Amino acid sequence: MEDLRIVFMGTPYFAVPSLQALIKNNYNIVAVVTAPDKPAGRGRKLHMSAVKIKALNNNLKVLQPTNLKSDEFLKSLINLKVNLQIVVAFRMLPKQIWQLPKYGTFNLHASLLPNYRGAAPINWAIINGEKKTGVTTFFIDDKIDTGVIIKQIETNINPDENAGNLHDRLMILGSKLVLDTVKAIQNQNIITKPQQNKLTYTAPKLNSDTCKINWQEDILTIHNKVRGLSPYPAAWCFLKNDAKKIKLKLYKTTIENVAHNYKTGSLIYTKKTLKVACKNGWLYIKELQLAGKKKMEVQDFINGYIFTEGAILL
What we know:
Layout: E1 6-10, H1 16-24, E2 29-33, E3 38-40, E4 45-47, H2 50-57, E5 62-63, H3 71-79, E6 84-88, H4 95-98, E7 105-109, E8 117-118, H5 121-127, E9 132-139, E10 149-156, H6 163-186, E11 202-203, H7 208-211, H8 219-228, E12 235-241, E13 244-256, E14 267-269, E15 274-278, E16 281-290, E17 296-297, H9 298-304, E18 312-313
Parallel strand pairs: 1-2, 1-6, 2-5, 6-7, 8-11
Antiparallel strand pairs: 3-4, 7-9, 9-10, 12-13, 12-18, 13-16, 14-15, 15-16, 16-17
Helix pairs in contact: 1-6, 5-8
């Protein structure tokens, strides 16, 4: 087998450990492809992606195409004589790009495919109360997350784990899987298996409606939504207090399954606790953020906020 000439494609921090693993193991990365620099912050200064920063710090060639279908981008890959492409948290590739390398283009996905195909697999696994998840490498084809599976690693989801914690664990597991996959390709020891199309769940892109809490749902369902959307983009609802309605984000909750006669959404508070009445128990709020304020622990919130009689979450 000829020596690998790898092009790595990725943008956010999730992709950085995978790139680092390839660098550490002395693989020949002929270029790194990432998103164009974007303005951010109050000054709207241009910011580089996490992957670009890592690439430049390791003296790697960086490509930032605005159009993945352009002839210029295709020619640049051809000129690099790429024979393997690795994709971790990047955009959907056109066929002319993913079919270019001799040894294919594989993607790292943060779920146990075929479950949770789509943009937000980590969030949806927790929202849906899954007990396990994992990472998958697969060869890209002309549909989204449907290509033949190369390798998988499974892991348990801890009962109180949120999306941020799970993201960080899968990021590290994923880097190991990327390295194992490259080694298998290098050793010509690849055994793929087609995906079964009987899906249990998918993982569509999150939006504001998705993240809104429905207080008529089961208490565990609400708790899992908070976990699955924390720390970003965060589950939210409205706090109605003294006829005013303001947006409230919840980041951490615990549950108490106990019978009560309170209306769902009703708030009960002490000097240290704040709980919400749900159909089959109490949801204790531990971390929250009121619109226009900073994220805070519930005790700090209670100390600085005045509740009126009949305050309720909607």
